[in-house]
Amino acid sequence: MPSYTAPTRDARFILNEMLDLAGYAHLPGFEMATPDVSDAVLGEGGKFCSEVLAPLNRTGDEEGCTRHDDGSVTTPAGFKQAYGQFVEAGWGTISAPEEFGGQGMPHALGFALEEFISSANQAFGMYPGLTNGAVSALIAKGSQEQKDMYLPKMISGEWSGTMNLTEPQCGTDLGMIRTKAEPQADGSYAVTGTKIFISAGEHDLTENIIHLVLAKTPGAPDSTKGISLFVVPKFLVNEDGSVGERNGVVCGSIEEKMGIHGNSTCLLNYDGAKGWLVGEENKGLAAMFIMMNAARLGVGIQGLSQAEAAYQNAVAYALDRRQGRALTGPAEPDAQADPIFVHPDVRRMLMDAKAFTEGMRALCLWGALQVDLSHKAETEEEREKADLIIGLLTPVIKGYGTDKGYEVATNMQQVFGGHGYIREWGMEQFVRDARIAQIYEGTNGVQAMDLCGRKLAQKGGAGIQAFFKMVGDEVEQARGDETLGPLAEPLGKALAEQQASTMWFMSNAMQNPNHLGAGAHHYMHMMGIVTLGFMWLRMAKVAQTKRAEGADDAAFYETKLATARYFMDRYLPDVGAFRRKIESGSDSMMALGEEAFATAA
Hints:
By secondary structure, this protein is of the alpha+beta class. Helix content is 55%, strand content 11%. Strands 3, 4, 5, 6, 7, 10 and 11 form a seven-stranded mixed sheet that branches. Strands 1-2 form a two-stranded antiparallel sheet. A two-stranded antiparallel ribbon has the order 8-9. A hairpin with a 5-residue loop joins strand 8 and strand 9 (243-246). Helix 7 (284-320) runs parallel beside helix 9 and helix 8 (344-376) packs across helix 14. The longest helix has 37 residues, at 284-320. The radius of gyration is 24 Å and the shape is globular. The protein starts with 7 loop residues before the first helix and ends in an 18-residue tail after the last helix.
Protein backbone atom coordinates (compact mmCIF):
# COMPACT_ATOMS: atom_id res chain seq x y z
CA MET A 1 0.00 0.00 0.00
CA PRO A 2 1.62 3.31 -1.04
CA SER A 3 2.05 6.05 1.53
CA TYR A 4 2.39 9.82 1.44
CA THR A 5 3.97 12.37 3.78
CA ALA A 6 3.37 16.05 3.02
CA PRO A 7 6.78 17.73 2.37
CA THR A 8 6.13 20.51 4.87
CA ARG A 9 9.81 21.20 5.59
CA ASP A 10 10.54 21.93 1.97
CA ALA A 11 7.42 24.08 1.57
CA ARG A 12 8.39 26.08 4.67
CA PHE A 13 11.86 26.60 3.22
CA ILE A 14 10.42 28.01 0.00
CA LEU A 15 7.72 30.18 1.58
CA ASN A 16 9.60 31.50 4.61
CA GLU A 17 13.21 31.52 3.44
CA MET A 18 13.37 31.69 -0.35
CA LEU A 19 10.23 33.78 -0.99
CA ASP A 20 10.25 35.45 2.44
CA LEU A 21 6.51 36.00 2.59
CA ALA A 22 7.00 37.98 5.80
CA GLY A 23 8.83 40.59 3.73
CA TYR A 24 5.54 41.40 1.98
CA ALA A 25 3.63 42.02 5.21
CA HIS A 26 2.83 45.57 4.05
CA LEU A 27 0.61 44.16 1.27
CA PRO A 28 -3.04 43.11 1.80
CA GLY A 29 -3.38 39.54 3.03
CA PHE A 30 0.32 39.00 3.59
CA GLU A 31 0.20 40.46 7.07
CA MET A 32 -1.75 37.36 8.13
CA ALA A 33 0.71 34.90 6.57
CA THR A 34 3.34 35.11 9.30
CA PRO A 35 5.83 32.24 9.54
CA ASP A 36 3.90 30.88 12.54
CA VAL A 37 0.59 30.96 10.67
CA SER A 38 1.96 29.48 7.46
CA ASP A 39 3.76 26.76 9.43
CA ALA A 40 0.49 25.92 11.18
CA VAL A 41 -1.41 25.78 7.89
CA LEU A 42 1.23 23.57 6.31
CA GLY A 43 1.52 21.34 9.36
CA GLU A 44 -2.18 20.78 9.98
CA GLY A 45 -3.04 20.74 6.28
CA GLY A 46 -0.28 18.26 5.60
CA LYS A 47 -1.52 16.06 8.43
CA PHE A 48 -5.06 16.10 7.02
CA CYS A 49 -3.78 15.15 3.57
CA SER A 50 -1.49 12.39 4.82
CA GLU A 51 -3.91 10.86 7.32
CA VAL A 52 -7.35 11.45 5.77
CA LEU A 53 -7.00 11.88 2.00
CA ALA A 54 -4.08 9.59 1.14
CA PRO A 55 -5.73 6.40 2.50
CA LEU A 56 -8.70 7.08 0.20
CA ASN A 57 -6.57 7.40 -2.93
CA ARG A 58 -6.32 3.74 -3.79
CA THR A 59 -9.80 2.73 -2.62
CA GLY A 60 -11.26 5.64 -4.59
CA ASP A 61 -9.38 4.48 -7.67
CA GLU A 62 -10.68 0.93 -7.31
CA GLU A 63 -14.30 1.82 -6.54
CA GLY A 64 -14.67 4.86 -8.78
CA CYS A 65 -17.83 6.95 -9.03
CA THR A 66 -21.27 5.48 -9.64
CA ARG A 67 -24.02 6.93 -11.82
CA HIS A 68 -27.57 5.99 -10.87
CA ASP A 69 -30.64 5.69 -13.09
CA ASP A 70 -31.86 9.17 -12.17
CA GLY A 71 -28.58 10.70 -13.35
CA SER A 72 -27.24 11.29 -9.84
CA VAL A 73 -23.66 10.30 -9.00
CA THR A 74 -22.14 9.03 -5.77
CA THR A 75 -18.43 9.36 -5.05
CA PRO A 76 -16.30 6.52 -3.63
CA ALA A 77 -16.69 5.46 0.00
CA GLY A 78 -15.12 7.93 2.39
CA PHE A 79 -15.01 10.86 -0.03
CA LYS A 80 -18.13 12.58 1.32
CA GLN A 81 -16.96 12.31 4.92
CA ALA A 82 -13.47 13.57 3.99
CA TYR A 83 -15.01 16.46 2.07
CA GLY A 84 -17.04 17.36 5.15
CA GLN A 85 -13.83 17.52 7.18
CA PHE A 86 -12.20 19.58 4.42
CA VAL A 87 -15.02 22.12 4.53
CA GLU A 88 -15.24 22.22 8.32
CA ALA A 89 -11.52 22.97 8.60
CA GLY A 90 -11.78 25.74 5.99
CA TRP A 91 -8.99 24.39 3.80
CA GLY A 92 -10.67 25.71 0.66
CA THR A 93 -10.88 29.26 2.00
CA ILE A 94 -7.16 29.98 2.56
CA SER A 95 -6.56 32.42 -0.30
CA ALA A 96 -10.16 33.27 -1.22
CA PRO A 97 -11.23 36.93 -0.78
CA GLU A 98 -12.44 37.93 2.67
CA GLU A 99 -15.35 39.82 1.11
CA PHE A 100 -17.04 36.51 0.33
CA GLY A 101 -15.95 34.50 3.36
CA GLY A 102 -12.39 33.57 2.47
CA GLN A 103 -9.30 34.09 4.62
CA GLY A 104 -7.60 36.37 2.09
CA MET A 105 -4.11 34.95 2.58
CA PRO A 106 -1.56 34.73 -0.27
CA HIS A 107 -2.04 32.32 -3.14
CA ALA A 108 1.49 31.11 -2.46
CA LEU A 109 0.28 29.53 0.79
CA GLY A 110 -2.87 28.19 -0.85
CA PHE A 111 -0.84 26.61 -3.67
CA ALA A 112 1.39 24.80 -1.16
CA LEU A 113 -1.67 23.20 0.40
CA GLU A 114 -3.08 22.44 -3.04
CA GLU A 115 0.01 20.38 -3.83
CA PHE A 116 -0.40 18.35 -0.63
CA ILE A 117 -4.06 17.66 -1.44
CA SER A 118 -3.29 16.58 -4.99
CA SER A 119 -0.36 14.37 -3.98
CA ALA A 120 -2.48 12.66 -1.36
CA ASN A 121 -5.51 12.19 -3.61
CA GLN A 122 -5.60 13.91 -6.99
CA ALA A 123 -9.14 12.77 -7.81
CA PHE A 124 -10.46 14.24 -4.54
CA GLY A 125 -8.52 17.47 -5.00
CA MET A 126 -10.18 18.13 -8.33
CA TYR A 127 -13.56 18.78 -6.68
CA PRO A 128 -12.48 21.91 -4.77
CA GLY A 129 -9.89 22.68 -7.46
CA LEU A 130 -12.52 23.16 -10.17
CA THR A 131 -14.52 25.31 -7.77
CA ASN A 132 -11.54 27.63 -7.34
CA GLY A 133 -11.43 28.24 -11.09
CA ALA A 134 -15.14 29.00 -11.25
CA VAL A 135 -14.77 31.39 -8.33
CA SER A 136 -11.97 33.23 -10.16
CA ALA A 137 -14.14 33.73 -13.24
CA LEU A 138 -17.12 34.99 -11.26
CA ILE A 139 -14.96 37.39 -9.27
CA ALA A 140 -13.54 38.84 -12.48
CA LYS A 141 -16.61 38.88 -14.74
CA GLY A 142 -19.73 38.20 -12.68
CA SER A 143 -22.26 40.85 -11.75
CA GLN A 144 -22.48 41.90 -8.12
CA GLU A 145 -25.74 39.99 -7.85
CA GLN A 146 -24.06 36.83 -9.17
CA LYS A 147 -21.13 37.25 -6.81
CA ASP A 148 -23.38 37.72 -3.80
CA MET A 149 -25.56 34.76 -4.79
CA TYR A 150 -22.90 32.17 -5.55
CA LEU A 151 -19.49 33.06 -4.15
CA PRO A 152 -20.01 32.78 -0.37
CA LYS A 153 -21.24 29.19 -0.57
CA MET A 154 -18.75 28.20 -3.28
CA ILE A 155 -15.87 29.55 -1.23
CA SER A 156 -17.12 27.91 1.96
CA GLY A 157 -17.34 24.60 0.09
CA GLU A 158 -21.10 24.19 0.58
CA TRP A 159 -21.46 24.43 -3.20
CA SER A 160 -18.97 23.43 -5.89
CA GLY A 161 -18.27 24.69 -9.39
CA THR A 162 -17.29 23.41 -12.84
CA MET A 163 -16.18 24.68 -16.22
CA ASN A 164 -18.04 23.41 -19.31
CA LEU A 165 -16.14 23.90 -22.56
CA THR A 166 -15.69 20.70 -24.54
CA GLU A 167 -18.30 19.10 -26.78
CA PRO A 168 -18.12 15.85 -28.77
CA GLN A 169 -17.16 17.67 -31.99
CA CYS A 170 -14.77 20.24 -30.50
CA GLY A 171 -12.11 20.59 -27.86
CA THR A 172 -9.34 23.05 -28.63
CA ASP A 173 -11.32 24.74 -31.42
CA LEU A 174 -14.09 26.16 -29.26
CA GLY A 175 -15.50 28.17 -32.13
CA MET A 176 -17.19 24.92 -33.17
CA ILE A 177 -19.41 24.62 -30.09
CA ARG A 178 -23.11 24.00 -30.74
CA THR A 179 -24.62 24.59 -27.30
CA LYS A 180 -27.28 27.29 -27.63
CA ALA A 181 -28.54 29.89 -25.18
CA GLU A 182 -31.94 31.35 -26.02
CA PRO A 183 -32.88 34.61 -24.26
CA GLN A 184 -36.00 34.49 -22.07
CA ALA A 185 -38.45 37.19 -21.07
CA ASP A 186 -37.19 37.22 -17.46
CA GLY A 187 -33.60 38.04 -18.49
CA SER A 188 -32.37 34.48 -18.19
CA TYR A 189 -31.36 32.13 -21.01
CA ALA A 190 -32.48 28.60 -21.89
CA VAL A 191 -29.28 26.60 -22.37
CA THR A 192 -29.44 23.46 -24.54
CA GLY A 193 -26.59 21.20 -25.65
CA THR A 194 -24.15 18.49 -24.63
CA LYS A 195 -20.84 18.96 -22.83
CA ILE A 196 -18.27 16.21 -22.33
CA PHE A 197 -15.23 15.64 -20.12
CA ILE A 198 -16.72 17.76 -17.33
CA SER A 199 -14.64 17.06 -14.24
CA ALA A 200 -16.71 16.99 -11.02
CA GLY A 201 -19.77 17.52 -13.21
CA GLU A 202 -22.14 15.59 -10.90
CA HIS A 203 -21.53 14.24 -7.40
CA ASP A 204 -22.87 13.95 -3.86
CA LEU A 205 -20.32 16.11 -2.01
CA THR A 206 -22.21 19.42 -2.10
CA GLU A 207 -25.84 20.47 -2.09
CA ASN A 208 -25.46 22.43 -5.34
CA ILE A 209 -23.10 22.56 -8.32
CA ILE A 210 -22.58 25.84 -10.17
CA HIS A 211 -21.71 25.20 -13.82
CA LEU A 212 -20.02 27.83 -15.96
CA VAL A 213 -21.03 27.00 -19.52
CA LEU A 214 -19.88 28.25 -22.92
CA ALA A 215 -22.73 28.65 -25.42
CA LYS A 216 -23.81 30.75 -28.40
CA THR A 217 -26.76 33.13 -28.47
CA PRO A 218 -29.01 33.41 -31.57
CA GLY A 219 -27.29 35.22 -34.43
CA ALA A 220 -23.86 35.10 -32.79
CA PRO A 221 -20.84 34.71 -35.10
CA ASP A 222 -20.09 31.07 -35.82
CA SER A 223 -16.58 31.36 -34.42
CA THR A 224 -14.79 32.09 -31.15
CA LYS A 225 -16.09 35.66 -31.47
CA GLY A 226 -19.62 34.37 -30.87
CA ILE A 227 -19.06 32.57 -27.58
CA SER A 228 -20.78 33.70 -24.39
CA LEU A 229 -20.42 32.45 -20.82
CA PHE A 230 -23.37 31.47 -18.64
CA VAL A 231 -23.78 30.46 -15.02
CA VAL A 232 -26.10 27.46 -14.82
CA PRO A 233 -26.74 26.00 -11.34
CA LYS A 234 -27.69 22.36 -10.88
CA PHE A 235 -30.44 23.58 -8.55
CA LEU A 236 -31.96 27.02 -8.99
CA VAL A 237 -31.31 29.39 -6.12
CA ASN A 238 -34.18 31.07 -4.30
CA GLU A 239 -34.13 34.76 -3.43
CA ASP A 240 -33.18 33.95 0.16
CA GLY A 241 -30.16 31.96 -1.05
CA SER A 242 -31.64 28.54 -0.38
CA VAL A 243 -31.59 25.72 -2.92
CA GLY A 244 -34.73 25.55 -5.07
CA GLU A 245 -36.01 23.31 -7.82
CA ARG A 246 -33.84 21.12 -10.06
CA ASN A 247 -32.55 22.78 -13.22
CA GLY A 248 -32.53 21.18 -16.67
CA VAL A 249 -29.05 19.68 -16.56
CA VAL A 250 -28.37 15.99 -15.98
CA CYS A 251 -25.39 13.63 -16.11
CA GLY A 252 -25.86 11.33 -19.11
CA SER A 253 -22.84 9.17 -18.30
CA ILE A 254 -19.53 9.02 -16.49
CA GLU A 255 -16.52 8.82 -18.80
CA GLU A 256 -14.56 5.55 -18.54
CA LYS A 257 -11.06 6.87 -17.93
CA MET A 258 -7.49 5.64 -17.64
CA GLY A 259 -7.09 7.23 -14.20
CA ILE A 260 -8.53 9.69 -11.64
CA HIS A 261 -11.41 7.25 -11.15
CA GLY A 262 -12.43 8.94 -7.90
CA ASN A 263 -13.45 12.05 -9.81
CA SER A 264 -16.72 12.04 -11.74
CA THR A 265 -15.84 13.14 -15.25
CA CYS A 266 -19.26 13.55 -16.80
CA LEU A 267 -21.16 13.95 -20.02
CA LEU A 268 -23.74 16.62 -19.17
CA ASN A 269 -26.95 17.15 -21.10
CA TYR A 270 -28.52 20.61 -20.95
CA ASP A 271 -32.19 20.69 -21.92
CA GLY A 272 -33.45 24.25 -21.68
CA ALA A 273 -31.57 24.72 -18.42
CA LYS A 274 -31.99 28.17 -16.94
CA GLY A 275 -28.78 30.17 -17.02
CA TRP A 276 -27.60 33.75 -16.75
CA LEU A 277 -25.05 35.63 -18.84
CA VAL A 278 -21.70 36.23 -17.16
CA GLY A 279 -20.03 39.37 -18.43
CA GLU A 280 -20.70 40.62 -21.95
CA GLU A 281 -22.41 38.69 -24.72
CA ASN A 282 -19.94 37.19 -27.23
CA LYS A 283 -17.08 37.81 -24.78
CA GLY A 284 -17.30 34.47 -23.03
CA LEU A 285 -13.99 33.07 -24.15
CA ALA A 286 -12.08 35.85 -22.43
CA ALA A 287 -14.02 35.15 -19.24
CA MET A 288 -13.43 31.41 -19.53
CA PHE A 289 -9.70 31.98 -20.01
CA ILE A 290 -9.62 33.40 -16.49
CA MET A 291 -10.79 29.99 -15.31
CA MET A 292 -8.49 28.16 -17.67
CA ASN A 293 -5.38 30.08 -16.62
CA ALA A 294 -6.14 29.44 -12.96
CA ALA A 295 -6.75 25.78 -13.80
CA ARG A 296 -3.53 25.54 -15.82
CA LEU A 297 -1.49 26.59 -12.80
CA GLY A 298 -3.39 24.01 -10.76
CA VAL A 299 -2.67 21.34 -13.37
CA GLY A 300 1.03 22.17 -13.21
CA ILE A 301 0.79 21.45 -9.50
CA GLN A 302 -0.85 18.12 -10.34
CA GLY A 303 2.19 17.20 -12.43
CA LEU A 304 4.39 17.99 -9.45
CA SER A 305 2.06 16.20 -7.03
CA GLN A 306 2.07 12.82 -8.75
CA ALA A 307 5.83 13.00 -9.22
CA GLU A 308 6.25 13.74 -5.51
CA ALA A 309 3.98 10.93 -4.35
CA ALA A 310 5.65 8.43 -6.69
CA TYR A 311 9.11 9.65 -5.65
CA GLN A 312 8.45 9.16 -1.95
CA ASN A 313 7.40 5.56 -2.48
CA ALA A 314 10.29 4.83 -4.85
CA VAL A 315 12.82 6.09 -2.28
CA ALA A 316 11.34 3.82 0.39
CA TYR A 317 11.42 0.84 -1.97
CA ALA A 318 14.99 1.52 -3.14
CA LEU A 319 16.20 1.56 0.46
CA ASP A 320 14.43 -1.69 1.28
CA ARG A 321 14.71 -3.83 -1.86
CA ARG A 322 17.94 -5.86 -2.11
CA GLN A 323 19.36 -6.93 -5.46
CA GLY A 324 22.98 -7.33 -6.51
CA ARG A 325 26.06 -5.54 -5.19
CA ALA A 326 27.35 -2.00 -5.45
CA LEU A 327 29.78 -1.55 -8.37
CA THR A 328 32.46 -0.32 -5.96
CA GLY A 329 32.15 -3.40 -3.73
CA PRO A 330 29.52 -4.68 -1.28
CA ALA A 331 27.92 -1.87 0.67
CA GLU A 332 26.63 -4.29 3.29
CA PRO A 333 28.92 -7.34 3.18
CA ASP A 334 27.01 -9.20 5.89
CA ALA A 335 23.78 -9.11 3.87
CA GLN A 336 23.03 -11.36 0.91
CA ALA A 337 22.66 -8.33 -1.37
CA ASP A 338 22.78 -4.54 -1.22
CA PRO A 339 19.75 -2.23 -1.37
CA ILE A 340 19.13 -1.16 -4.96
CA PHE A 341 19.66 2.41 -3.76
CA VAL A 342 23.41 1.86 -4.27
CA HIS A 343 23.12 1.34 -8.03
CA PRO A 344 23.92 4.44 -10.11
CA ASP A 345 21.00 3.96 -12.51
CA VAL A 346 18.54 3.80 -9.64
CA ARG A 347 20.22 6.84 -8.10
CA ARG A 348 19.94 8.63 -11.46
CA MET A 349 16.18 8.20 -11.48
CA LEU A 350 15.83 9.23 -7.83
CA MET A 351 18.05 12.29 -8.25
CA ASP A 352 16.20 13.32 -11.39
CA ALA A 353 12.98 13.11 -9.40
CA LYS A 354 14.34 14.98 -6.40
CA ALA A 355 15.80 17.77 -8.53
CA PHE A 356 12.56 18.15 -10.47
CA THR A 357 10.08 17.98 -7.60
CA GLU A 358 11.94 20.45 -5.38
CA GLY A 359 12.65 22.80 -8.28
CA MET A 360 9.07 22.59 -9.55
CA ARG A 361 7.69 23.22 -6.06
CA ALA A 362 9.77 26.40 -5.89
CA LEU A 363 8.54 27.47 -9.33
CA CYS A 364 4.87 26.85 -8.51
CA LEU A 365 5.03 28.77 -5.24
CA TRP A 366 7.11 31.57 -6.76
CA GLY A 367 4.56 31.70 -9.60
CA ALA A 368 1.76 31.92 -7.04
CA LEU A 369 3.57 34.88 -5.49
CA GLN A 370 3.54 36.56 -8.91
CA VAL A 371 -0.25 36.04 -9.01
CA ASP A 372 -0.49 37.78 -5.64
CA LEU A 373 1.80 40.63 -6.70
CA SER A 374 -0.09 41.14 -9.96
CA HIS A 375 -3.08 42.17 -7.83
CA LYS A 376 -1.55 43.53 -4.64
CA ALA A 377 1.87 45.06 -5.36
CA GLU A 378 2.17 48.71 -4.38
CA THR A 379 2.88 50.21 -7.80
CA GLU A 380 1.29 49.72 -11.20
CA GLU A 381 4.71 48.94 -12.63
CA GLU A 382 5.23 46.09 -10.14
CA ARG A 383 1.74 44.73 -10.79
CA GLU A 384 2.26 44.81 -14.57
CA LYS A 385 5.64 43.07 -14.34
CA ALA A 386 4.26 40.29 -12.13
CA ASP A 387 1.31 39.85 -14.49
CA LEU A 388 3.64 39.65 -17.50
CA ILE A 389 5.86 37.06 -15.83
CA ILE A 390 3.11 34.75 -14.64
CA GLY A 391 1.31 35.07 -17.98
CA LEU A 392 4.51 34.04 -19.77
CA LEU A 393 5.23 31.16 -17.40
CA THR A 394 1.71 29.69 -17.09
CA PRO A 395 2.10 27.45 -20.19
CA VAL A 396 5.56 26.43 -18.97
CA ILE A 397 4.28 25.49 -15.50
CA LYS A 398 1.42 23.53 -17.04
CA GLY A 399 3.20 22.02 -20.03
CA TYR A 400 6.72 21.34 -18.82
CA GLY A 401 5.50 20.59 -15.29
CA THR A 402 3.10 17.86 -16.41
CA ASP A 403 5.34 16.38 -19.12
CA LYS A 404 8.16 16.04 -16.63
CA GLY A 405 5.84 15.03 -13.80
CA TYR A 406 4.55 12.11 -15.86
CA GLU A 407 8.11 11.14 -16.82
CA VAL A 408 9.17 11.14 -13.17
CA ALA A 409 6.14 9.04 -12.20
CA THR A 410 7.02 6.41 -14.81
CA ASN A 411 10.67 6.41 -13.73
CA MET A 412 9.62 5.89 -10.12
CA GLN A 413 7.52 2.96 -11.33
CA GLN A 414 10.68 1.71 -13.04
CA VAL A 415 12.55 1.74 -9.71
CA PHE A 416 10.14 -0.97 -8.54
CA GLY A 417 10.98 -3.20 -11.50
CA GLY A 418 8.28 -5.82 -12.05
CA HIS A 419 6.55 -4.86 -8.81
CA GLY A 420 5.92 -1.42 -10.28
CA TYR A 421 3.67 -3.00 -12.90
CA ILE A 422 1.63 -4.86 -10.29
CA ARG A 423 -1.42 -3.05 -8.99
CA GLU A 424 -0.95 -3.86 -5.30
CA TRP A 425 2.13 -1.63 -5.02
CA GLY A 426 0.19 1.43 -6.17
CA MET A 427 2.81 2.86 -8.53
CA GLU A 428 0.77 2.27 -11.67
CA GLN A 429 -2.00 4.49 -10.27
CA PHE A 430 0.40 7.43 -9.97
CA VAL A 431 1.33 6.92 -13.62
CA ARG A 432 -2.29 6.68 -14.75
CA ASP A 433 -3.38 9.66 -12.70
CA ALA A 434 -0.44 11.77 -13.88
CA ARG A 435 -1.21 11.12 -17.55
CA ILE A 436 -4.37 13.24 -17.73
CA ALA A 437 -2.53 16.40 -16.66
CA GLN A 438 -0.71 16.51 -20.01
CA ILE A 439 -4.05 16.51 -21.81
CA TYR A 440 -6.63 18.69 -20.13
CA GLU A 441 -6.87 22.50 -19.92
CA GLY A 442 -5.26 22.53 -23.35
CA THR A 443 -2.94 19.72 -24.39
CA ASN A 444 0.74 20.41 -23.91
CA GLY A 445 1.17 21.02 -27.61
CA VAL A 446 -1.39 23.80 -27.23
CA GLN A 447 0.53 25.13 -24.22
CA ALA A 448 3.73 25.20 -26.27
CA MET A 449 2.02 27.11 -29.09
CA ASP A 450 0.49 29.52 -26.59
CA LEU A 451 3.98 30.18 -25.23
CA CYS A 452 5.72 30.57 -28.58
CA GLY A 453 2.91 31.88 -30.75
CA ARG A 454 1.37 34.37 -28.30
CA LYS A 455 3.33 34.95 -25.12
CA LEU A 456 6.78 35.57 -26.63
CA ALA A 457 5.48 38.39 -28.80
CA GLN A 458 2.94 39.79 -26.34
CA LYS A 459 3.39 43.50 -25.63
CA GLY A 460 6.35 43.66 -27.94
CA GLY A 461 8.16 40.84 -26.16
CA ALA A 462 8.08 42.65 -22.80
CA GLY A 463 7.47 39.45 -20.84
CA ILE A 464 10.32 37.40 -22.27
CA GLN A 465 12.69 40.34 -22.04
CA ALA A 466 11.78 40.80 -18.37
CA PHE A 467 12.39 37.07 -17.85
CA PHE A 468 15.78 37.19 -19.56
CA LYS A 469 16.83 40.16 -17.43
CA MET A 470 15.65 38.57 -14.21
CA VAL A 471 17.55 35.32 -14.80
CA GLY A 472 20.56 37.15 -16.24
CA ASP A 473 20.80 39.44 -13.22
CA GLU A 474 20.68 36.44 -10.87
CA VAL A 475 23.47 34.77 -12.82
CA GLU A 476 25.67 37.89 -12.79
CA GLN A 477 25.25 38.39 -9.05
CA ALA A 478 26.39 34.81 -8.40
CA ARG A 479 29.34 34.59 -10.81
CA GLY A 480 32.07 35.70 -8.42
CA ASP A 481 30.92 33.55 -5.52
CA GLU A 482 33.00 30.45 -4.75
CA THR A 483 29.95 28.24 -4.18
CA LEU A 484 27.34 29.85 -6.42
CA GLY A 485 29.61 30.71 -9.35
CA PRO A 486 29.92 27.11 -10.59
CA LEU A 487 26.12 26.87 -10.50
CA ALA A 488 25.58 30.18 -12.25
CA GLU A 489 27.99 29.48 -15.11
CA PRO A 490 26.02 26.65 -16.77
CA LEU A 491 22.75 28.50 -16.16
CA GLY A 492 24.16 31.53 -17.95
CA LYS A 493 25.10 29.35 -20.92
CA ALA A 494 21.64 27.76 -21.00
CA LEU A 495 20.03 31.20 -20.88
CA ALA A 496 22.15 32.25 -23.87
CA GLU A 497 20.94 29.16 -25.76
CA GLN A 498 17.32 30.10 -25.04
CA GLN A 499 17.92 33.68 -26.14
CA ALA A 500 19.45 32.43 -29.39
CA SER A 501 16.45 30.15 -30.02
CA THR A 502 14.12 33.07 -29.41
CA MET A 503 15.98 35.12 -31.99
CA TRP A 504 15.86 32.19 -34.43
CA PHE A 505 12.08 32.13 -34.13
CA MET A 506 11.94 35.85 -34.79
CA SER A 507 14.08 35.48 -37.91
CA ASN A 508 12.45 32.37 -39.36
CA ALA A 509 8.89 31.87 -38.13
CA MET A 510 7.39 34.77 -40.05
CA GLN A 511 8.43 33.32 -43.42
CA ASN A 512 7.34 29.81 -42.42
CA PRO A 513 5.02 29.48 -39.39
CA ASN A 514 5.64 25.72 -39.36
CA HIS A 515 9.13 26.47 -38.06
CA LEU A 516 7.49 27.88 -34.93
CA GLY A 517 5.10 24.93 -34.62
CA ALA A 518 7.89 22.40 -35.09
CA GLY A 519 10.04 23.95 -32.36
CA ALA A 520 7.41 25.03 -29.83
CA HIS A 521 7.48 21.84 -27.75
CA HIS A 522 11.27 21.93 -27.52
CA TYR A 523 11.22 25.62 -26.62
CA MET A 524 8.72 25.02 -23.81
CA HIS A 525 10.97 22.33 -22.34
CA MET A 526 14.03 24.51 -22.83
CA MET A 527 12.35 27.32 -20.92
CA GLY A 528 11.17 24.91 -18.24
CA ILE A 529 14.74 23.78 -17.60
CA VAL A 530 16.09 27.35 -17.55
CA THR A 531 13.33 28.44 -15.17
CA LEU A 532 13.97 25.56 -12.79
CA GLY A 533 17.67 26.38 -12.99
CA PHE A 534 16.78 29.92 -11.96
CA MET A 535 14.84 28.52 -8.99
CA TRP A 536 17.72 26.25 -8.01
CA LEU A 537 20.20 29.12 -8.08
CA ARG A 538 17.93 31.12 -5.79
CA MET A 539 17.48 28.17 -3.44
CA ALA A 540 21.23 27.56 -3.40
CA LYS A 541 21.82 31.18 -2.48
CA VAL A 542 19.52 30.86 0.55
CA ALA A 543 21.05 27.51 1.53
CA GLN A 544 24.57 28.91 1.36
CA THR A 545 23.59 31.85 3.56
CA LYS A 546 21.94 29.60 6.12
CA ARG A 547 24.94 27.29 6.18
CA ALA A 548 27.28 30.24 6.74
CA GLU A 549 25.07 31.41 9.61
CA GLY A 550 25.42 28.03 11.27
CA ALA A 551 21.75 27.08 10.99
CA ASP A 552 20.70 24.11 13.10
CA ASP A 553 19.38 22.11 10.14
CA ALA A 554 22.75 22.01 8.37
CA ALA A 555 22.11 18.72 6.59
CA PHE A 556 18.98 20.17 4.92
CA TYR A 557 20.95 23.06 3.41
CA GLU A 558 23.87 20.86 2.35
CA THR A 559 21.38 18.65 0.56
CA LYS A 560 19.91 21.67 -1.21
CA LEU A 561 23.35 22.69 -2.49
CA ALA A 562 24.15 19.15 -3.65
CA THR A 563 20.83 18.85 -5.47
CA ALA A 564 21.37 22.23 -7.12
CA ARG A 565 24.72 21.00 -8.44
CA TYR A 566 23.05 17.87 -9.79
CA PHE A 567 20.39 19.91 -11.59
CA MET A 568 22.98 22.15 -13.22
CA ASP A 569 25.10 19.14 -14.22
CA ARG A 570 22.36 16.88 -15.53
CA TYR A 571 19.44 19.04 -16.69
CA LEU A 572 21.00 22.15 -18.20
CA PRO A 573 22.98 20.37 -20.96
CA ASP A 574 19.66 19.38 -22.56
CA VAL A 575 19.00 23.03 -23.39
CA GLY A 576 21.68 23.02 -26.09
CA ALA A 577 20.15 19.90 -27.66
CA PHE A 578 16.73 21.57 -27.71
CA ARG A 579 18.25 24.59 -29.45
CA ARG A 580 19.69 22.39 -32.18
CA LYS A 581 16.33 20.69 -32.66
CA ILE A 582 14.57 24.06 -32.91
CA GLU A 583 17.05 25.38 -35.44
CA SER A 584 16.65 22.30 -37.64
CA GLY A 585 13.32 23.83 -38.64
CA SER A 586 10.23 22.06 -39.92
CA ASP A 587 11.25 20.89 -43.41
CA SER A 588 12.01 17.26 -42.56
CA MET A 589 9.04 17.12 -40.15
CA MET A 590 6.51 18.26 -42.76
CA ALA A 591 8.10 16.68 -45.85
CA LEU A 592 6.01 13.51 -46.19
CA GLY A 593 2.51 13.43 -47.62
CA GLU A 594 -0.28 11.65 -45.79
CA GLU A 595 0.02 8.58 -48.01
CA ALA A 596 3.52 7.98 -46.65
CA PHE A 597 2.11 7.37 -43.18
CA ALA A 598 -0.18 4.56 -44.29
CA THR A 599 0.92 1.04 -43.36
CA ALA A 600 1.38 -1.13 -46.44
CA ALA A 601 -0.20 -4.58 -46.38
